[in-house]
Design a protein that fits this description.
- The chain has a single domain, classed as D-tyrosyl-trna(Tyr) Deacylase, Chain: A, CATH 3.50.80.10.
- Helix content is 21%, strand content 38%.
- It contains two helices and eight strands, in the order βββαβββαββ.
- Strands 1, 2, 3, 6, 7 and 8 form a six-stranded mixed β-sheet that branches. A two-stranded antiparallel sheet has the order 4-5.
- The longest helix has 19 residues.
Length: 149
């Protein structure tokens, strides 16, 4: 399971020109679910995401987590994170989990993040064509792979 975490000052998500989600300071997390992923991958990533200390403290050091700043989180499923690009110019998505596997893991990630952060998680819509606008703060962007901790 791959998570791309962006520290943002704000983000919005639209589907068919309608606002679906909006957050202020916090994280936008793009989540790629691999065919080999399990609930253990969800638990590992949710714990890492909730505990990331990448917000500035009074001395300007990255020392605060999402809860410490009362930050928000927008979680978006993104199967393209599992694209194989080694051969040719057309990506292969054979390593991305099919919906029957990925939807339950995505829903488990939402539930686990809500438990770990103590807040409701904003989300996209699984499989929808979404437009995400965000202001990356820093910029700060991290990639965490549950198979390569």
């Amino acid at each position: 399971m791959i998570a791309v975490i962006q520290r943002v000052s704000q983000a919005t998500l639209h589907i068919d020109n309608a606002l679906k989600a909006s957050i202020q300071q916090g994280f936008v997390v793009l989540l790629g679910i691999h065919v080999d992923d399990t609930p253990e991958d969800v638990a590992y990533l949710a714990s890492k995401i909730a505990g990331l200390r990448i917000f500035s403290d009074m001395e300007g050091k990255m020392n605060l987590d999402l809860q410490a700043i009362n930050g928000e989180l927008l979680l978006v499923s993104q199967f393209t994170l599992n694209a194989a690009t080694r051969k040719g110019n057309r990506p292969s998505f054979l390593e991305a989990a099919r919906p029957e596997q990925s939807i339950p893991l995505y829903e488990l990630m939402i539930k686990t993040l809500e438990e770990n952060t103590g807040q409701k998680i904003q989300t996209g819509v699984f499989g929808a064509d979404m437009q995400i606008n965000l202001t990356n703060d820093g910029p700060v962007t991290l990639i965490i792979d549950s198979k390569n901790p």
